[in-house]
Amino acid sequence: MLAYLNGVVRERQNGEMILVTGSESQGQVGYLVKTPDHPRYDVLIPGQRAEVYVYTHVREDAFDLYGFQHPGEKHFFTTLLQVSGVGPKMALALLSHADDLSLASMILEEDKAALTSISGVGKKTAERMVLELKDVIVKKMEAGVLRRSSRASEPIRQGGGSVASVSGDRSNPVFMDAYLALQGLGYKEVQAKQMVEHAFSVLGKPERVEEVLKVALKGGLGQ
Predict the structure, then answer these.
(1) Domain 4-69 superfamily per CATH
(2) pLDDT for 177
């Protein structure tokens, strides 16, 4: 897997560039690299040297390279891929809309309106990004893997402003579906999270949304 490239930009347009490595005497190779289509990448100028940190995505019918100007942005890209339903194309679209620090702030501040304003990001995807990545981003910032946002040093807060911890497995689709179902029943975000967390603490690793909702509603935490 390719992880880093250093060479000369041969062509660049619409978020793609050809990066040529090697030398004329020993042979050259041109790599097609997809990058965020954002003005901050205008520094990648044809004819000039550039370096990119690469994520390699291999499929049966494709071998795609995604390049980023610094390792923190690459790590943020791979962090986005942890969200169910977010693939490389959507993750790149997110980073084409804003840089990693701005996107991290949206997630840490639970700014779902800002997230859904990005083309291709619906309400459910925004919910998943907040629920599944909020703690992950803070931990990675503290570990120095991601660039630090000022929000990372604050207690993790839910939409209502009160400090809360989430013990449930938020990457579990059952957790998310139960959480969204409770919101559909009229419960507020914090209430719904607390109710699903309670159900998970009672059931362990439930496999069906119905059993989670039964325990959650019986617990009365949302009242």
Answers:
(1) Nucleic acid-binding proteins (2.40.50.140)
(2) 75
